[in-house]
Amino acid sequence: MTMQQLRPHPQQVLQAPSPAEDQPVGTFVEVARSSDARSGVLFTAHGPVQTPVFMPVGTYGAVKGLTPRDLKDTGAQIVLGNAYHLAHRPGPELVAAHGGLHGFMGWDHGILTDSGGYQVFSLRGLQKIDDTGVDYRTHFDGSKHRMTPRSVLEVEAKLGSDICMILDHCPPGDADRSLMRAAMERTTRWAREAAQLRESILAPTQMCFGIVQGGTDLELREEHLAQIAELGFDGLALGGLSVGEPTVAMHATMAAIAPKMPTDKPRYVMGIGTPLDLVAAVRSGVDMFDCVMPTRHARNGQLFTWSGKINIRHAAHKDDLSPVDAQCACACCTTTSRAYLRHLHRQNDPLYGRLSTIHNLFFYAQLIAVLREGLREGTFEAVLTAIEPMLAAYREA
To answer: pTM for this structure?
Structure first.
């Protein structure tokens, strides 16, 4: 098996076959497994999501520069929005008047919204945390607001998200054990409140995920997992990773904790990652992940390929008539050259951002499709062997 044999036709990326029959919203069905790695189907109000799955980040209700059709053509099944940002701009009432985020965006597939707690906690000096919520000043205009488990769910109810993340306390990666434990205990209190409130606030078609904290301390992680797992959420997430800890420690944490998460619910690791992170997550049994990396890096000139990452700003691409990846079927690689992309980037042309983002998201969707297909066809270990040269290129980068 070679890497080229693995790369599926784009339609396979977009329309992965589902071995599971229709199920009620919120159902997760595991359909294939190889050691800890697994593939499944999560049933949402806007259609089934084939897992493992990468979710592009559309913080303000849009993946920058892309139309819903562009997103679909990259292979995206579900996208991520941010309740904190959307609560302030444009406001949940306006979004609700459009029929929720799906109508506002014109996107008829899955949407997950993060609570925005991470963004609030990163406003150091502009927020004050207590056991019932967080007082903060926005980074937009400095106005005062308060975020609580209830307020987060109320915003997400108006946004109409398919998956709603609860409010949690995410400490920095270098936090000491006492601060980590305090964040865990506060997150548990907030999770219990959210679990009690969700039925009265969210629609029956809206799922609600709990979040497990504990940094890279495996003892704390297991303790917190036990606390959050008993609250009856529709899925569980590992938060507080990729926040400054060493990559080796992050991967080790996923490998140790993800297999211990409930098997009948989707497992989500928030805010990762590189191609290496995604493969490590899938091997650990993680079903869902998101990151700004493919979109933000694209705008900054960094393009992901099956031979490693390239910087389109380099002079070596000035006269290069070849595409970013000759084997790639995305709308960027089938229409433009590296030289043209470099030219667009140097001119700050918005077309560069659109084309480069399409390429990076297509690469991510195709990588996950390869892993998903390997799991479902019983060839997962052979797939890992075949993509090792690609992974080695990213380790050396």
So the answer is: 0.96
